[in-house]
Design a protein that fits this description.
It contains nine helices and no strands. The chain is mostly helical and 188 residues long. The model is unreliable at 1-6 (pLDDT under 50).
């Protein structure tokens, strides 16, 4: 697992692994990390799933990562350096629960799906995977955190986060709340 550091990327990874401010007392991991455990336990051949695999949790992990991926691609540019930073942050946040090859394969799939379907269809697909309000909040929080890796949330990134919120039945106020929480957490 990559070491957490004081850089922005390190701060983002650290915040991604922590439970959000709105979580219940005693929760140790973020929803991203909790769902990563199941995603990471997926068998390579999918013939026999190991104990602990939860397909709903794996879908949740994919949806959370895809939401951040959509925001990262909002400006139409996602070069090798940005992809490597994105992958590093997700791997660090998941604290070894997901293998590098799994994240690489997921990002390849997300790239193909975005190219084929376009952002609106992918936003709709993410929203279909999210059924609980706390999961929807986590989608916005993770997307906002990863948007900060590039030095802050641009207007076009904010627009994608707003579209995610609306598709999940939330208001733009939910986006503002997630962005405030992220800004506060990263300021520490």
């Amino acid at each position: 697992m990559p070491a957490h550091d004081s850089t922005l990327i390190g701060k983002v990874a650290k915040q991604l692994s922590r439970p959000p401010a709105y979580s219940e007392r005693g929760v140790k991991d973020s929803i991203l990390v909790a769902s990563a455990a199941s995603y990471g336990s997926r068998s390579e051949d999918d013939l026999t799933q190991p104990t602990g695999f939860d397909p709903d949790a794996a879908r949740l992990f994919e949806a959370i990562v895809e939401s951040a991926y959509l925001v990262a691609n909002a400006d139409g540019e996602f070069d090798k350096t940005e992809q490597e930073a994105f992958e590093h942050v997700v791997l660090a946040a998941c604290e070894g629960r997901v293998a590098e090859r799994q994240i690489g394969a997921l990002l390849d799939d997300l790239h193909d799906q975005l190219a084929e379907d376009g952002v609106e269809k992918r936003v709709e697909m993410v929203a279909r995977s999210i059924v609980r309000p706390d999961h929807a909040q986590e989608v916005l929080r993770v997307a906002a955190l990863l948007a900060h890796v590039s030095g802050g949330v641009s207007d076009i990134e904010r627009s994608v986060i707003d579209r995610l919120a609306l598709a999940m039945g939330m208001t733009e106020n939910a986006t503002s709340s997630a962005l405030r929480e992220v800004a506060t957490a990263l300021a520490d």
